[in-house]
Design brief:
This protein is mainly α. It is built from 3 helices and no strands. The chain has helices at about 1-25, 25-35, 35-40. The model has no long low-confidence stretch (mean pLDDT about 70).
Length: about 50
C-alpha cells in the first residue's frame, strides 16, 4: 500500500499544480509554466 502511494503521489501533486496554474494571475502562471512537473518526477528505474 505504501509503495502504491509513492507511485500515485507525484501524479497527484502534478494535477494539483496544473489546477493552480489555471487559477493564478498571468505573471505567476507564466513562471509556473516554466516548472514542468512531469520532468521533475522521480523514477526509481532512472537509478539503474
Amino acid at each position: 500500500q505504501i509503495a502504491r502511494a509513492a507511485e500515485v503521489l507525484p501524479l497527484t501533486l502534478c494535477e494539483k499544480l496544473d489546477n493552480i496554474k489555471d487559477e493564478v494571475e498571468k505573471p505567476l502562471r507564466e513562471r509556473l509554466e516554466e516548472f514542468d512537473c512531469a520532468a521533475q518526477a522521480y523514477k526509481p528505474e532512472d537509478d539503474l
